[in-house]
Amino acid sequence: MDQLVAAHVDQSQTGANTYPVGDGPAGLAIDGTSLWVANNGSSTVMRVDRATGAILATYTSGKGPFGITSDGRNIWVANFAGDSLSTTLAK
Predict the structure, then answer these.
(1) N or C: which end of the chain has fewer CB within 10 A?
(2) How many domains does the structure of the chain reveal?
(3) What is the tens place of the pLDDT at every residue in 65-79?
(4) Is the model's pTM score more than 0.85?
(5) Structural domain harbouring 34
(6) What is the CATH number of the domain that holds 37?
(7) Closest CA to 61 of 47, 48, 73, 78
(8) DSSP letters of 20-54?
(9) How remote is the C-alpha of 84 from its chain's centroid?
């Protein structure tokens, strides 16, 4: 399992945390509540709690997810190896 390093900066402190995620994290999106990680090597997308780094859910995506974004309602994933786009991951 690879890792996601989340760094935050505010006026009082700077810190970084490292969270385990799936194989080959290749994209990151924030929907206001959660972090979403596209795992290229395992063809999955993970929903991660922003405060704790806990994995809230893992979803199967198309082959080789690489890019990921949120439109405010859905999570969109560009699947590099599958030449496809996934949008079935409603928040």
Answers:
(1) N
(2) 1
(3) 999 999 888 899 999
(4) no
(5) 23-90
(6) 2.40.10.500
(7) 78
(8) E-SSSEEEEEE-SSEEEEEETTTTEEEEEETTT--
(9) 17
